[in-house]
Amino acid sequence: MSQKEKIYIEPSIFAADFGHLADEAKRAEDAGADAIHFDIMDGHFVPNLSLSPKGLAAMNRATELYLDVHIMVYQPFEYIERLIENGADCITFHIEATEDVEETLEYIRKCGVHAGLAFCPDTSESLIPKYLDKCDKLLLMTVHPGFGGQEFIADVLEKIKFTRGLCDKLGVRQGGKVDPKLPPFDIQVDGGVDDKTAPLCIEAGANHLVAGTYLFKGDNMQEKITGLRG
Question: What's the alpha-carbon Rg for the chain, to the nearest Å?
Answer without folding.
Answer: 16
